Amino acid sequence: DDSASRPGKVQGDGQLAVEVPETAHQISRDSWFQVGFVLTTGINSAYVLGYSGAIMVPLGWIGGVVGLILATAISLYANSLVAKLHEFGGKRHIRYRDLAGFIYGKKAYSLTWGLQYANLFMINTGYIILAGQALKAVYVLYRDDHDMKLPYFIAIAGLVCALFAIGTPHLSALRIWLGFSTFFSLVYIVVAFVLSLRDGLQAPPRDYSIPGTSTSKIFTTIGAAANLVFAFNTGMLPEIQATIRQPVVKNMMKALYFQFTVGVLPMYAVTFVGYWAYGSSTTTYLLNSVTGPVWVKTIANVSAFLQTVIALHIFASPMYEYLDTRYGINGSALAFRNLSFRFTVRGGYLAINTLVSALLPFLGDFMSLTGAISTFPLTFILANHMYLVAKKSKLSSSQKLWHWLNICIFGCMSVLAAISALRLIALDSKTYHVFADL
């Protein structure tokens, strides 16, 4: 239904009514398969090239492998809880905040919104840094003069992302681009996998010991655990589920099973092989570790750049949806008013993103902080608690205990991860300056 932004009221249990606007974007159009690819694009984005260094190095073989498998299972479980609440109370909740508002009332609506946008803003900023790093990696393959610094490449990446955002009106409009995105993902994953495998077979025995002092090991382990969770979770499941056609819960579960089986295999492969090949000296951007023909590495880096542009659009779409709905942008995507609105507003939003990216390129630490203060609460604590509240009469006492246990464990992890991330930021801000050329 493409109806314009008519505010509709939703009444929670005795809570204040929350104004829920209809959406200016398309909903209920896409097959579960297309939505499965949207989810898989998020998981196999260029971020996977960093997991050997960011997850495996601090956790080692046993911690890394067990951690990844556990994070996959826990994330599938938490996401399925949110997916099952999509039609709670006889109404579709097409935004995370609508669902929280319906269950808890007005304050939760605003809080969920704030957490979600902080999370998505940081993910987008990370994508622009990644895109800049991929472009810089191409440059370094051909020129070693350091004339072009990372912030310049970040600026170019931001510009390309803005052009793509102006040309792609909403999440469902990605259709053909999801095919390209999957192709680009496969290119850099296969190249990184094959070159790492070749290097690993030729290399002398590697050192797999976990680097650092015993204190720093504790903190890096906690940080890596936050990155594990960050790897699998979008923090915008209801928004993605809104694009799926009926029956929404059944189709979304199919998409989630696809994401967490077929979808995670490329990520596993490249993460494990990267660590196996280079041990604890693996870099946080795997294509910088591999040796091989320059043209192959060029294609892989260009693919990583292009895929990042498409993936960023997915994580920016809740922001675009809010702005389009707020200002009644509907009808033809090519109408002058709609084009100029997207040009100004999305361009402005991405300009801010790009500035933050160039300013703080050691964003991995901020990612861990975002994971701690928004991904954990949104995806795990809130998912379990919303399910408890929504289904309270239907759950046995052991099921209730199970959900409370989840809430407590993830609450503690969230606090620990936040402390660990703040410590990293403090340490790194002594080492790096703003607009650093990493």
Overall description:
Helix 2 (51-84) packs antiparallel against helix 9 (248-260) and helix 2 (51-84) runs antiparallel to helix 10. This protein is an all-alpha fold and 438 residues long. Strand 1 and strand 2 form a beta hairpin. It has one domain (32-431): Amino acid/polyamine transporter I. It has helices at residues 32-43, 51-84, 96-104, 106-142, 150-167, 175-202, 214-232, 237-241, 248-260, 265-278, 294-326, 336-359, 364-390, 397-431, and strands at residues 7-10, 18-21. The radius of gyration is 21 Å and the shape is globular. The protein has a two-stranded antiparallel ribbon with strand order 1-2. 70% of the residues lie in helices and 2% in strands.
Secondary structure topology:
Elements lengths: L6 E4 L7 E4 L10 H12 L7 H34 L11 H9 L1 H37 L7 H18 L7 H28 L11 H19 L4 H5 L6 H13 L4 H14 L15 H33 L9 H24 L4 H27 L6 H35 L7
Antiparallel strand pairs: 1-2
Helix pairs in contact: 1-6, 1-9, 2-7, 2-9, 2-10, 2-13, 3-4, 4-5, 4-11, 4-12, 4-13, 5-11, 5-12, 6-10, 6-11, 7-13, 7-14, 13-14
Q: Radius of gyration over alpha carbons?
A: 21 Å
Q: What portion of residues is helical?
A: over 70%
Tell me, rounded to a whole number, the average pLDDT.
88
Distance between the termini: 46 Å
Order of helices and strands: EEHHHHHHHHHHHHHH
Briefly note the structural class of the backbone: mainly alpha
Q: Which of globular, elongated, flat, extended, rod-shaped describes the shape?
A: globular
In the predicted model, the low-confidence regions spanning at least 5 consecutive residues are: 1-16
CATH fold description: Amino acid/polyamine transporter I
Overall number of strands: 2
Sheet-strand content, in percent, reads under 5%
CATH architecture: Up-down Bundle
